[in-house]
Design brief:
The chain has about 750 residues and is α/β, with parallel strands linked by helices. It has 20 helices and 28 strands. α2 runs antiparallel to α10. Keywords: Signal.
């Protein structure tokens, strides 16, 4: 575990918050389930975080997720005390994507200066791994290697990840492991011998100073096969930035372990898909995934383990039902007739707030904060003040939802983006932008010069360019990073025939011929951004996270036929099938078919784990159904209604015979495949011959492929910078500042 710095010396003059950030809203005292803590001998408990993306100050506009990283440190400390008192053990796990997505991380120079300077690394973690976001930029991965890995030393595991440093001449050195390939250790109280691995999914879009070996290839390495054969292992712990559900990587790891150790328990910790989920491979191999953005603290417990490497001899004989239930594992588990010792797995998804923390640690507002936790909370407050994250640019008149409102609608952030933010920002920029004495800040090397500044233009963006909701109230510097932390700007192709440009949006939202052709032509030939996107699931990243991958309405209907769903608003408990918090937005093979349609949601179970009459609550939140049933959320939530959205939205600017901006008029126009009739034009007579096609740079490979499919052969060299190099973060922040002022006193204080 890392050494703990003396923050009381570093921060003598800071206000020490009693808990959470001073501006954090108080959580609602909602009904809570009891923590399924495993007490006593042969018991092991875990706390799990993943995909925190810089949200270590907590959610300052959402009371149910308002605890900060210092509160988590206090919470873990109390649970460590509980484990020591009752003879059990507690381990902490983090599975990556700690960076990018919050002003606390993104607003500093270098990025992450404060996150990894007296905040994150103050939490002792027993197994920590990298995510893909640690690898996109060379500077980020170098900081991970130079700062985070040394802080956690042997606790940081990188089973399939290498990095290369710069030599004395500034040239790339040879690749080396980012951290240890695996770790073997023994728990404090029970002497449980654990062999731990740390994987990243088969990621290919990393910077060139890192290398990710495919998991399936790593499993063939001699070091891995030798590790599997080590003696006196009581538990295999597999942590990684890998989804637990429908994961070829984790399925391969499971099979590899079972080929050598048929009966040793396995526990998996996953990440990447931003969902609450629990996966059962078989009776002694299960895994948890614990959400996103520090909304969730995952808890998992195991009872019935043996300490001291004593093995798992004896116990219950596997029943015929067990064998049938484990059917698909029989090839990997050749010895299914042998005896098996029962291991009890339990899980809980803890809402990250003080109400939950007090309840599960049996503390009060007076007894909960530890000195260490308070100091870290103070460091977070100091960092936010130093970064001026409370600087207010405007005040939002109402809340706009990314996917909790149908698109299009008056409450949809995507409607606001397409109807006003993009077209008005583009119109404003192209009316005023030219490098001159009146505009000295515009760089003539990056400014996009229109021969006609009012030339008809179509603007397209992937909806995944927005990361979070836009809440009513002050819009601050921090808000800009929460809404869109991405650094890609906008690009433009000039003078595209309108007949082709007008059909690009339909192609992008149909996910039909373009992506199908890329799969057929690109895979296996290496190198292209489109190939990487298809292979790594970045196609799904074009749209906001729809939740658990692959579980769309067609899957829900299939479960319903099997008896897994009672109706569209409830599920049977007791496990089997499910996955991910419900309701969530599916990633369908053809998501456009469900745009604007409400996804199935779940009513709270009436009876599970002794919960005969769960109290009602008015607190909205996740209602998770996973392989252990529907009682995993610690807070009894009212289900939130989520809606599917298109991959991309579009706007038109400076079209003839229209107002300044003319937009798509219906969701059907954005989701259907291209047709001979223009999808963006009110009538052929008002359509220009050519337009400038402007788009978010992230989707450039798709734009070029769509145009090629439509018979227009453009290449990257034909594109240029648009919006003067502004990012989506700049565009949204600038529009709010120009458009929404604050009433007297409204913009004071924290967002």
């Amino acid at each position: 575990m890392p050494p703990l710095s003396d923050l009381s010396v570093l921060l003598p003059f800071l206000h020490l918050a009693s808990a959470a950030q001073p501006s954090a809203p108080s959580p609602i005292s909602a009904p809570l389930r009891s923590l399924p803590w495993a007490s006593g001998k042969n018991s092991l408990n875990f706390l799990h975080t993943t995909d925190t993306h810089g949200w270590h100050a907590g959610h300052l506009q959402e009371p149910q997720y308002s605890a900060d990283w210092g509160d988590y440190i206090s919470f873990a400390s109390h649970l460590h005390d509980r484990a020591d008192a009752d003879g059990s053990d507690l381990l902490l796990i983090d599975t990556g994507d700690r960076v990018e997505g919050n002003g606390l991380y993104d607003a500093s120079d270098p990025k992450g200066y404060w996150t990894f300077n007296g905040i994150f690394e103050e939490q002792p973690i027993d197994v920590i791994t990298s995510g893909n976001h640690e690898l996109y930029l060379a500077n980020t991965s170098r900081r991970e290697s130079d700062v985070v890995v040394p802080a956690y030393r042997q606790d940081y595991i990188a089973s399939n990840l290498d990095i290369r440093d710069l030599d004395a001449d500034g040239q790339d050195a040879e690749f080396r492991p980012l951290a240890a390939r695996y770790r073997k250790f023994t728990t404090k109280n029970n002497g449980i011998r654990i062999l731990a691995f740390g994987f990243l999914f088969n990621f290919h879009n990393n910077a060139n100073n890192t290398r990710v070996q495919p998991v399936q290839e790593t499993l063939k390495e001699k070091w891995f096969q030798d590790a599997l054969r080590e003696e006196n292992v009581d538990l295999f712990l597999v942590a990684g930035h890998v989804p637990v559900r429908e994961s070829e990587e984790y399925d391969a790891v499971y099979r590899a372990i079972r080929e050598v150790k048929w009966d040793t328990p396995i526990v998996f910790f996953g990440g990447h898909t931003h969902v609450r989920d629990f996966k059962r491979w078989e009776n002694k191999a299960m895994g948890i995934e614990s959400g996103r953005y520090l909304e969730t603290i995952g808890f998992l417990s195991m009872q019935g383990l043996k300490g001291g490497g004593s093995g798992h001899e004896g116990g219950d004989v596997a029943t015929e039902e067990d064998e049938q239930e484990d059917g698909e594992k029989k090839e990997a588990t050749a010895s299914t007739q042998r005896t098996k010792k029962s291991i009890q797995y339990s899980r809980m998804y803890i809402d990250n707030n003080l109400h939950s923390f007090h309840h599960h640690s049996n503390t009060t507002s007076d007894t909960f904060p530890t000195e260490h936790g308070r100091n870290v909370s103070a460091q977070i407050e100091h960092a936010r003040q130093t970064l001026n994250l409370n600087q207010t640019y405007g005040c939002v008149p109402q809340t706009y939802w990314l996917n909790r409102a149908p698109y299009p609608s008056n409450n949809s952030l995507l409607s606001l983006l397409a109807d006003r933010i993009l077209p008005e920002s583009f119109a404003s920029y192209n009316t005023t932008a030219s490098p001159s004495a009146k505009n000295p800040d515009i760089n003539p090397n990056t400014a996009d010069h229109h021969h006609n500044n009012h030339k008809p233009s179509i603007i397209l963006t992937n909806t995944g360019a927005l990361r979070f909701d836009l809440f009513k109230g002050p819009f601050t510097l921090d808000s800009t990073f929460l809404i869109s932390p991405f650094t890609s700007g906008f690009r433009m192709i000039r003078d595209v025939p309108f007949s082709a440009a007008d059909r690009v949006l339909g192609l992008l939202n149909s996910e039909g011929p373009i992506l199908r052709r890329e799969r057929e032509d690109g895979l296996g030939f290496g190198g292209s951004e489109m190939e990487r996107a298809v292979r790594e699931g970045l196609v799904r990243a074009m749209a906001p996270q729809r939740g658990f991958a692959g579980r769309g309405e067609e899957n829900a209907e299939e479960e319903k036929k099997k008896g897994g769903l009672e109706n569209n608003s409830g599920r049977k408990g007791g496990g089997g099938g499910g996955g991910g918090q419900i309701p969530l937005l599916p990633t369908n093979d053809n998501p456009s078919s469900d745009i604007g349609r409400e996804q199935p949601h779940v009513s709270l179970p009436q009876k599970e784990n002794g919960d005969d009459h769960p109290p009602t609550t008015s607190v909205p939140g996740y209602t998770t159904h996973d392989d252990l049933g529907a009682a995993g959320d610690d807070t009894l939530h009212v289900p939130i209604r989520f809606f599917d959205v298109p991959n991309c939205v579009g706007s038109r600017v400076f079209f003839p015979n229209t107002t300044t901006t003319t937009l798509l008029e219906s969701p059907e126009q954005q989701q259907t495949p291209p047709s001979p009739s223009p999808s963006l034009s009110p009538s052929p007579s008002s359509s220009p011959d050519k337009v400038d096609l402007v788009y978010n740079a992230f989707i450039e490979p798709w734009i070029l492929s769509a145009l090629e499919f439509l018979g227009e052969g453009y290449e990257k060299k034909d594109t240029e910078v648009a919006f003067g190099g502004k990012t989506m973060t700049d565009v949204v922040g600038g529009w709010v500042e120009r458009t929404w002022g604050c009433e007297d006193g409204e913009g004071d204080g924290e967002a």
